[in-house]
Amino acid sequence: MKRLCAFICGSCLVFFGLVFPAGAKADELNKRTVMTISEPVEIPGANVALPAGTYVIKVVDVAGDRSVVQIFNDREDTLYATVLAIPNYRIKPSDKSQFTFWETPSGVPKALRSWFFPGDTFGVEFLYPRNAAARIAHGSDQNVPTVYSESQAPADLRNARIGATTPQGNETGLSKDVYSEAGGKTPSGSGRQ
């Protein structure tokens, strides 16, 4: 009887979680998060911005100081991008997933910058391919972490050369002032959801 009650209660929680999503929810192991956006958002590695809607984002591989993240539609039957990310840190954890965005000119979709996991002081900062990084760096007047690989295969991303692109479009290393030895951003302000 206790097992049946636990199964029914657990099913109710799953049902309520699906019917009433809390903006972004995450699983522990792969950090699987359901992300709902209300306006178009540019993601690294995709040729178009994601339109408003619901998506699934999750870590599929962690190799040292790098993570490979995939972004799917809500049914997880369409993969939009496989993205390389480096660690990013914040001072205070939140009970919700949080996302930050690069500044973009008016009328241009926001560009996804980082993703913080619920309850953790760490998350990931996304690396953009060179052309997109140059455009975002120019618009935000900041160096943008860059992956120098045309391939989106996880094995290729794990070994890809990384750096940053300056607002002038030049290649540079990741700044020691901004990124720790592990390759992640030092603690800073909170993100937006």
Blueprint (SSEs and pairs):
Blueprint: H1 2-19, E1 24-26, E2 33-37, E3 41-42, E4 53-63, E5 66-73, E6 79-90, E7 98-102, E8 110-116, E9 122-126, E10 128-129, H2 130-140, E11 144-148, H3 154-159, E12 161-165, E13 171-172, E14 185-188
Parallel strand pairs: 3-8, 6-14, 10-11
Antiparallel strand pairs: 1-2, 2-4, 4-5, 5-6, 6-9, 7-8, 8-9, 11-12, 12-13
A few lines on this structure:
The chain has helices at residues 2-19, 130-140, 154-159; strands spanning 24-26, 33-37, 41-42, 53-63, 66-73, 79-90, 98-102, 110-116, 122-126, 128-129, 144-148, 161-165, 171-172, 185-188. With 193 residues, it is α+β, with helices and mostly antiparallel strands.
Number of helices: 3
Following the backbone from N to C, one meets helices and strands in this order, namely: HEEEEEEEEEEHEHEEE
Q: Helical amount among residues, as a percent range?
A: 10-25%
Strand content range:
35-45%
Q: Biggest β-sheet: count, sense, barrel?
A: 10 strands, mixed
Domain module tally: 1
Extended strand count? 14
Shape: globular
Poorly predicted runs are 1-23, 180-193
Rg result: 17 Å
Spatial gap, N to C terminus: 41 Å
| Class of secondary structure makeup | alpha+beta
Mean pLDDT: 79
Question: What would you note in describing this structure?
Answer:
This protein is of the alpha+beta class. It has one domain. The protein has three helices and 14 strands. The protein has helices at residues 2-19, 130-140, 154-159; strands spanning 24-26, 33-37, 41-42, 53-63, 66-73, 79-90, 98-102, 110-116, 122-126, 128-129, 144-148, 161-165, 171-172, 185-188. Strands 1, 2, 3, 4, 5, 6, 7, 8, 9 and 14 form a ten-stranded mixed sheet that branches. It has a four-stranded mixed sheet with strand order 10-11-12-13. A hairpin with a 5-residue loop joins strand 12 (161-165) and strand 13 (171-172). The longest helix has 18 residues, at 2-19. The chain is globular and about 40 Å long. The chain starts with a helix and ends in a 5-residue tail after the last strand. Mean pLDDT is 79; it is low at 1-23 and 180-193.
